[in-house]
Amino acid sequence: MNHDWKHPKKKPHLYVPQPPAEGCPINSLPPEILSWIFVLGQQMDLDPEPSPYAVDADPGSDSGHDRDDSAHPRDDPTTHTTLNNRGVDKALSSEPIPVVDDDHENSEWEDEDSERDGDSDNDDLSIESVLVDDSLQVTVSHVCKHWREVALGTPALWSDIDLETGSHAAPSYRRASAYLSRSKEYPLSISIDVNECDIDDESVYSEQSDHQSPMTNVQLREIVDLLLPHTKRWRKFKLTAEDYFYFHVVLSRLCDAPPASLLESLELHHFEEELEPELHSFPYPSYKTPYILFDNCAPKLQHVSLYGVHIDWHNTTFLKNLHSLELAYHSHDVRPSFDDFFTILRSSPGLRTLDLCMSGPLGPPHEWPVFLPPPPQSDHYHDPHVPAAFAAKSHTLDEYMILPRLHELKLSYQSPEDLAAFFNRVSVPSLHTLEINFEDYEYTEFIQSYLIAPPKWQGGSSRESRFVNLKEFRLIQLPCTPKVIAELYATLVNLETIDLDFNSLDEPFWEVFVPMRVYGITTPANQLLPALHTMRVKGSHGNIIRQIVDARIQVELPLKKLFIDFGSEVDKDDDRWLRENVEGVEYFEGSDEDDLTDYDESASSIIEVEMDGFPL
Question: Which residue has better confidence, 84 or 378?
Fold first, then answer.
């Protein structure tokens, strides 16, 4: 099927005019303004994803936004200063720098590194001499001498450092060296991608399995040696690798690293496709020892994402005041204990996002303690939403834990017993978004007992659904009966957006909107999701989508926005009919996470860029 008709037309290449003979008018701008334009352009060029720990609207705030200044690094003098102090190097003159032809013979300036930067075309640190780099910061540094000096004098332009092992290790290492030099003292965002090198079959390296590369190990150690002296200005750190040995290499070094005083985001992602989906024992016994990182000091840490990587949960003290926590693919024996897990949650009263995928507290739920751990004693952890009677001593589960600001909850590959035990101990009164991806079990009883009509706690006001205020529901997989689907939908009276993945969901999840298609459901169609106005679908068919849209129209609850992934089989007639019956219809790439969020934003919405005290 030809889908070219529904893809947006490609934008033509922009014509870049030559500057006038009398000189480029942009060079009359103060260097601070030109530097600011460069950083703005770089942000747009990178097209960064929304921060997973960004502060969203706070219902309790008069302005509708959370104004906790401590959560905004842009206002923190220890991480950012004004543009005049860091955006442009202090040594850069505020006067416009004239454009000078390097060879004095023609208008094309030969690329030559700034003396102040300490580079030259023959220097090993010269990024342009060792690596083809079409990033904006390198491109603008080649336009003319004036632009180059401004670019090299703008540390923010050189603060994103991507490193990799394998065939591109050497050039990426030299590029990183140049970026570290040019970024001066600016906070760094570091990403390391470990790729195995090609090796001979006879290669041998002590303590490594046959498929591990000694060259990759050497490269990774050199990378760590390059970065460790700059730990104090790490702002984001991400490490991705397929073999756990390399995490052992890095973690063993990070446990000796100095405090990461500016670190806001820590991501350690171990992906190894050959492993079993769920393990009871850690498969690498020699690397099982947990570590405490950064001298146990990362006071600004807000976002933590650990895929298959564990740390010393019990003795690590910087897992507090988090905005986002993601724990995934941990074998049972390296998960945090019950007390450690719930202490981490209680230590982060401002937690906004919690993502648990095949991870959670250690041990089977029936062995979990009947008491929640006491709250931390430090006033730094004080949570005003915890009942006053909950003092230093342990209390029964009637005193359940409240996550007062939790905005988004993602649960994947959890057993019904694990989920029941979790919801018996946690309350999420401000939950806005719920994402569910379950398989291998039957969840009908759990849905009925814990989502539709949860147990009434001591002091609770009713047995109404704990998700009665939910605004967004993302369903990937959920084995259950058709009847309980309708019952669940009927409780979500404030739900505005639903995301259905038909690649893995059964038919009743959409048939429930068309009552004559499903037997045994008595809930009136006009009582199913009465506030729903937006739907996103993946892997569907045009005929199915039309039936859903038409059914909502018939009960006078029409959809206003419809998002369809390109993997859905929608032809021209379907598209025409949908556009006639839905106010807004858009298509998106199913794997593009950016298209799954912020869909209320128009294409012309303002891009907000954070830059040293200059929010746009």
Answer: 378
